[in-house]
Write the C-alpha cells for this entry.
Amino acid sequence: MKDLPEQALQEIAAYFQVLSEPTRLKILNLLRDKESNVGELAQKTGYSVANVSRHLALMAKHSMVVRESRGTSVYYRIGDDAIYGLCDLVCGNIERRYEKIAAERAAFTSTVS
C-alpha cells in the first residue's frame, strides 16, 4: 500500500467493505464450486431472490463477480479467482486463532482437573 493515491485507498476500503458481509461471503463460497443464477443462489443460501440480487449487484460493481445473460436467466461466476486467495488467507488466520484458544483452554482444563 506504499505511496498509493487517495482514490486507490478508497477503492481498496470499498472492496473490503463488500467482503465484510457474511451473506456475500456465503455467495462467493457457493460460486467457488460453479456458476449459478440468482434463483439457485437464493435457494442454497435461504435468502430471497431480491436480497441475493442486491448482493450480486454490489459484488459485480467491484468486479468480484461477472454476470452473463443466457435466455431469461442471468448466471454469475467469480470475476477474479484471487479473491479466494485473500479469503483463504483471512480464514486460515482466524482458524489458527481458534485452534490456539482451544489448545489453551484444553491445557488450562487439564491442569485444573
